[in-house]
Amino acid sequence: MSELLRVEGLSKRFGGVTANEDISFDVRKGEILGVIGPNGAGKSTLFDLITGFQQADSGTVILDGRDITGLRPDRIARMGVGRTFQKLKPFPDLTLLENVMVGALSRTANMHEARDLALEAISFVDLLDKRYAFARELSTGQRKRLEMARAVASGPRLLLMDEVTGGVDQKTIPGLIDLVFALRESGITVLTIEHNMQVMMQVSDRILALQSGKRIAFAKPDEVRKDPLVVDAYLGTVDAA
Amino acid sequence: MARAPDAALEQARADPVWPAAPRAFKIMGLALVAALAVFPFVFTGTFSHHVMIMIFLHAIMAQSWNVIAGMSGQISLGQALFFGLGAYASAFLYVKWGITPWLGLLVGMAISALVAAAIGIPTLRLRGHYFAIATLIIGISFQIVFQRWEWIGAASGIFMPIERETPWFSLQFHATKLPYYYLSFGLCAIAFFTVWLLQRSRLGMRLLAVRDEPEAAQSLGIDIAWHKVIAFMISGAMMAAAGTFFAQYVLVIDPDRVFSFEISVLALLMAVLGGAGTLWGPALGAAILIPLSEYSRIWFGGTGGAVDLLIYGVLILLICIYQPRGLLVLVTERLRRRGQRNE
After folding, report:
1. Residue ranges of domains in chain A, CATH in brackets
2. Which residues partner with B159 through β-bridges?
3. CA within 20 to 30 Å of B15's CA: A2, A38, A96, B337, which one?
4. Could you count the other beta carbons within 10 Å of the beta carbon of residue A166?
5. Chain B residues close to A129, C-beta within 8 Å
6. pLDDT digits (tens, 9 = 90+) for A199-240
7. How many other CB atoms are found less than 10 A from the CB of residue B24?
8. Where are any strands of DSSP class E within A115-233?
């Protein structure tokens, strides 16, 4: 499998706090790469650095051979990098359909085509019956699906998902996991942050483990599970997986 | 996409992209247009025509503010700047070189759009209150420049000579206000149709995205600064059209009048009162505030100025307390509730 994203020596400090320190890894085309780590490990900062929402102090981000370090978020998005947000950001006064249409309008200027692309994406996350509801009226789980559909509709090659299963009830988790697999089947490479270790071990091809802003492991789930540093970081909770 | 298109998806595709307006709305809309078309023949008083003309004119001004603030979320406190540029562009071209104000209208709109870009490109990149402050200060600066600029009449402004031979070329009418009535009605209709189209366009939908969640908009590839600049250019051009019309209506313009800060505030007030971000809110705001202001001038004599401003102040306080989303929301929410009951 060829490489889609390469991150080399990425570092970011906020005042005296080191959020990311010398992080390197690569993402292969078509894989699901999971990022794990305790709260404050620097996972969301890493996403912000890759997608351009924060500027790295040093290091480079290379997408499909092109250096995208320091580019504006919208330029990186137009190069095929989509993302969802940990703190959800739907457009509250637009309907679900309109929210996803805004995503689809990145691929086409034709409103009719955009609507059809949006419907496909909404059908993909299985929310068609809610398409005329305003985003502010949707539940947390539905808003997560909205964000996924909106990002998918914009036609990304690489999708960064921040906390897919965070904050939703247990019943909806299997459905969300199926979605992540379905994304990969549709040809999208997935980079995902997850708190739920069980979920992560189940979906990821490879796992990047962070702690205090540093990379402590980067390997297949089975190996990461046994990694003493990871076990230590999670106080043995991985055994449950 | 991973899943095969199923029946529900096919059904959804069959829907029109934009749901048709309810029948009751269409009938009400047509009735309103018909009523406005025959209004001057039912109410023949010149003053009633004047009030209606002022409503149309101010509805355009409120709609202009609505495009930059209601749709893209950037508060402008300097809309008078474009009103003045529109008024001066057409008046100046006509008086200096005898160019028809029809062309002056377009020139004023183009100049305003360029000035909007010049102000917007540096200031709309910044977050926070910089844009509001910049428009406030630049608006006032333009007034001062025009007060001192001899070539264009300085503080005494421009006086357009009376021309009775070619009313449609010189765009001035003296025997009756009827042409002004229909001209302002037409301009207003064009402004509202433009915003209606905008709301259903890629640009319009992206503006709402930029307004509500700029980071999410960026994550979808939208250049947020550029979109705000485009919105400001449209807003400026719209305001300039109102300015040109006003100049032709009063035929005497001066910086104190057409660059007045009160114009900027009024545009904002009407849009906020009626409902910023909605299509019809600015019209509703103008239809409420303008009669108040025009009739208070009669009741209280002279300029009446202080009294209407006092009423504006009270109205804006009430709207802030009871319905910050504007009066139109009261109507639409009621219709929505009724619709849900009927289902």
Report:
1. 1-72+190-241 (3.40.50.300)
2. B252
3. B337
4. 13
5. 8
6. 888 889 999 999 989 999 899 998 988 888 888 887 555 444
7. 11
8. 158-162, 189-193, 206-211, 214-219
